[in-house]
Amino acid sequence: MGLWKRLGGPDLAQVWGSCWILLLLFWRGLACPDSCTCTSTRISCDRTPGIGAFPVLKNLSHAQNITDIYITYQRYFASINEDDVKIYTELRNLTVVDSSLKFVSRQAFLKNLKLTYIDFSRNKLTTLNRKFFRHLSLTHLYIADNPFQCSCDIMWLKLLQEANMFNMEKQNIICINENNKRITLPFMHIPNCVLPKVNVSTREVTILEGNSTTVFCEATGLPDPNVSWDISQVKSNTLIGTVKHAAFLTLKNVTSLDNTKTLVCSADNVVGEDQVIVELNVHFPPNITLIDYPTLDHHWCIPFSVRGNPVPKLQWFYEGSVLSDTDFIWSKIHQSSNNMSEHHGCLQLDSPTHLNNGFYTLQAENEYGKDERTIMAQFMNDPDIGGPITDPGFYDYETTSNDIGGTSTDNSNGVTSTDVSNEGNEDSITVYVVVGIAALVCTGLVIMLVILKFGRHSKFGLKGFVLFHSVPLEG
Ligand SMILES: *[C@@H]1O[C@H](CO)[C@@H](O)[C@H](O)[C@H]1NC(C)=O
Ligand SMILES: *[C@@H]1O[C@H](CO)[C@@H](O)[C@H](O)[C@H]1NC(C)=O
Ligand SMILES: *[C@@H]1O[C@H](CO)[C@@H](O)[C@H](O)[C@H]1NC(C)=O
Ligand SMILES: *[C@@H]1O[C@H](CO)[C@@H](O)[C@H](O)[C@H]1NC(C)=O
Ligand SMILES: *[C@@H]1O[C@H](CO)[C@@H](O)[C@H](O)[C@H]1NC(C)=O
Ligand SMILES: *[C@@H]1O[C@H](CO)[C@@H](O)[C@H](O)[C@H]1NC(C)=O
Ligand SMILES: *[C@@H]1O[C@H](CO)[C@@H](O)[C@H](O)[C@H]1NC(C)=O
Ligand SMILES: *[C@@H]1O[C@H](CO)[C@@H](O)[C@H](O)[C@H]1NC(C)=O
Ligand SMILES: *[C@@H]1O[C@H](CO)[C@@H](O)[C@H](O)[C@H]1NC(C)=O
C-alpha cells in the first residue's frame, strides 16, 4: 500500500479502490461463482480452475429460482455439507459427476423437498448415509462407479437396488471389501446386518375411558435398532420407557377423545426402518351433546348429536311413551364423525300438526350407560288456544261461512238489476245525442235549401234531398 502511495499519490489509490468496488459489485450482481455459468434456473460448473466448495449464490432471491445444479470435472470438489444446499429450496436436479465428491452430510438435503433427481456417478464416495435421502421423494438416484466400502452402512443401497427403486437396477454399483476386492453390490454379504422388524404386544387396544393400559413394542434387527413411539395423535396422559431395542408405552386415564386415534411404533438402524400402527378403541358411555328445537327442511327435524362407543342404541319418547318409527316419524343418523365418535341426526316428522306438539325425549344407551335429553317441540298452535291468524283452520272457517250464505246469491242478483238500469240510462243518453245531432243536421240542411231555393236555380237531385229531409221537419 505504501508503495502505491509513493508512486501515484492519493489519486491512484482512490481510482484503484473504486475499481475494486466496481469489480465486487459486478461479481455480486452476476452472482455466479467462478468456474460456473448461471442462468436464472440453472448453475453449471464445468470449467477450470474449478470449484473447491459447493457453488453459492449470494442473492437469495436468485438462489430460490434455481432448479438445476450441474457439477462436472471438478477435482477439488469433495464435500456437500449440511448448509450448502439449503438455500436452493426449488432444486429438482442435482448432478455431481466425474468429480472428487467424498462426503455428503446426512442433513444436506433437509430443506430440498423438491429434489427428485440425484446423480453422484464417478466420484470418490466410500459410504452414503441412508438418512440423507429418507424424506425425499426421489425418482432417480445414480451412484455407479464410486469406491464404496463394503459395509452395513451401504446395505440400504443393495436393498434399494434389489427392489429396483429410483431406477437403480441397471447401475453397476461396486464396493471394495477388506481384501481390496471389488464386489458388485448384489454379491455383497455383510454379517450382522439385518433390517429392523417391529413387533407390538397388540395392534388394537380396546379400553374403557378412564382406564390405563400399557403397549409393548419390540424390534429385531442388526445393529440393534432404535425404537420409538409416535404419540402425537393422542391426548391421554402417556409414559414411555425404552430398554435397548424395546419400548413400552403406558396410557393413563384414557380419554374418549382418543377413540380411533393411532399410536405408531418405529424402529430404525443403518439398514432401514419398520413401523407398526396400533389403533385405539376407547369405549365410553353415551353423551347426548345436542338436542334442539325443530327446524323445517324438506321434513321437520328435531336435530341431535350423540357421542358414545360402541355406537349407542337410540330410543325416542313422546310425552313419556315410546315413539316407534313410522312412515311419518322416524329417527335417522345423517353423519358420523369418526375422530370425535359423534353421530349427528334428526327425528324426522312428515307434516306434523298441533297434535304432534309436546315433549320429545331422546334416550341413548350402550353397555356402559345411558343418557337422555328432552326438548319441547311446537309445530302448530292449538286452534282452541292459538291466535286466529297463524291457524290455517281460521281460513277454512271463513271459506265455509261464505259458501253457506245462500243470501249472497240474491244480493248479487240485486246488484245485476242495478247494473242493467245503469246500462239503460247510458243507452237513452246515446239516443238523445243522436236525435239532437240529426235535428241539428236537418236544420242546417233546411237553411241551405231555403238559401238555394230563393237565391239560385237548382237541379232535381236537390229536390229529392229536400223530400227526404222534409219528413222530420213536418213531424
Ligand atoms: C437480489 O436480486 C433481486 C432481483 O434481481 C434484487 O431486486 C435484489 O436487490 C437483490 N438482493 C441483493 C441482496 O442483492
Ligand atoms: C424468479 O422467478 C420468478 C418467477 O418465475 C421471476 O418473476 C423472477 O424474475 C425470477 N428472479 C430472478 C432473479 O431470476
Ligand atoms: C434433470 O436432469 C435430467 C438429466 O439431465 C433430465 O433428463 C431431467 O429432465 C431433469 N429434470 C428436471 C426436473 O429438470
Ligand atoms: C411378537 O410379540 C408377541 C408377544 O409380545 C410374541 O408372542 C410373538 O412371538 C412375537 N413375534 C415375533 C415375530 O417376534
Ligand atoms: C377398567 O378398569 C376397571 C377398574 O380398574 C376394571 O374393573 C375394568 O375391567 C376395566 N375395563 C376395561 C375395559 O379395561
Ligand atoms: C381422569 O381424567 C378426568 C378428565 O379427563 C379427570 O376428571 C379425572 O379426575 C381423571 N382421573 C384420574 C384418576 O386421574
Ligand atoms: C439411536 O439412538 C442413539 C441415541 O439417541 C443415536 O446416537 C443413534 O445414532 C441412533 N441410531 C439410529 C440408527 O438412529
Ligand atoms: C357431555 O357433553 C357435554 C357437551 O360436550 C359436556 O359438557 C359434558 O361434560 C359431557 N358429559 C359427560 C358425562 O361426558
Ligand atoms: C375431526 O374431523 C373433521 C373432519 O373430518 C375435522 O374438521 C376436525 O378438525 C376433526 N377434529 C378433531 C378433534 O380431530
UniProtKB/TrEMBL annotation:
It is found in: Membrane. Pfam families: I-set (PF07679), LRR_8 (PF13855), LRRCT_2 (PF16920). The chain crosses the membrane at residues 429-452. GO terms for cellular component: adherens junction; plasma membrane. InterPro entries: Ig-like_dom, Ig-like_dom_sf, Ig-like_fold, Ig_I-set, Leu-rich_rpt, LRR_dom_sf, Nectin/Nectin-like, NTRK. Residues 196-283 form the Ig-like domain. One of its GO terms (biological process) is homophilic cell adhesion via plasma membrane adhesion molecules. The keyword Transferase does not apply. Residues 1-31 form the signal peptide. The keyword rRNA-binding does not apply. Keywords: Disulfide bond, Glycoprotein, Membrane, Repeat, Signal, Transmembrane, Transmembrane helix. GO terms for molecular function: ATP binding; transmembrane receptor protein tyrosine kinase activity. This is Ig-like domain-containing protein.
